[in-house]
Design a protein that fits this description.
single chain, mainly alpha, Gustatory receptor for sugar taste 43a-like, receptor
């Protein structure tokens, strides 16, 4: 409460400088939005390629790690595969985390402007804050990969869900192939046993006929 009173007094005593500061912040935010637009245009394809490669590697590497983790492989191989998984996760976070931090700061700015609107006694200052609030609403900080998806932490959860789904499907197909292979081997063995039994029967019948 005391902090709000102090803010009100400062705004009342220094309304002109406050208005100028808001105008400067609006200019800085506009420049920042233009910079983000240029970054999206220049590095959108790069971010898209890196994201797709991370998705593919995060599917293939854990798949082979799970398939080979049956005791037949050396622990060094499993450790290397695990390190590759960690590396691809780190590579994805190196793209997502900075963009998420910038977006979060933009949302904090919008919240602070809303709080200032409720304590500013200056009419001109309130007008500038309202304009700034509209600018924050219509021009948010948003990083994207060619406009296909936004680069934030929700991308991590989406990739995690996709990786889990594909791993389950691939492992099921692998088990079905193994089961089919075992069934084919059993069928071949049974056929061979029948052939051997038939041959033995013919030989036995021939000998009995000769006798």
């Amino acid at each position: 409460m005391i902090v709000l009173i102090i803010i009100k007094i400062n705004l009342f005593l220094d309304g002109k400088s406050f208005t100028d500061n808001i105008s400067q912040l609006m200019t800085v935010h506009a420049s920042l939005c233009d910079t983000v637009t240029l970054i999206n245009a220049a590095y959108g394809v790069v971010a898209l390629v890196i994201t797709i490669t991370c998705l593919i590697h995060l599917i293939i590497t854990p798949y082979f790690l799970i398939i080979e983790a049956d005791g037949r492989r050396e622990p060094l191989f499993l450790a290397v595969q695990g390190l590759w998984c960690i590396f691809h996760i780190w590579r994805l976070l190196m793209i997502v985390q900075p963009t998420y931090a910038a977006t979060t700061e933009g949302k904090k700015t919008a919240a602070l402007v809303s709080q200032l609107l409720s304590v500013s006694p200056d009419r001109e200052g309130r007008k500038q804050l309202e304009i700034f609030s509209l600018q924050l609403l219509h021009r948010p900080l948003e990083f994207s990969a060619c406009g296909l998806f936004t680069l934030d932490r929700t991308l991590v959860t989406s990739i995690a869900g996709a990786v889990t789904t594909y791993l389950v499907i691939l492992i099921q197909f692998q088990k079905e192939d193994d089961t089919k292979g075992n069934f084919d081997n059993m069928l071949k063995n049974a056929t061979q046993m029948l052939k051997n039994a038939s041959t033995l029967h013919n030989i036995t019948a021939g000998r009995l006929g000769l006798n």
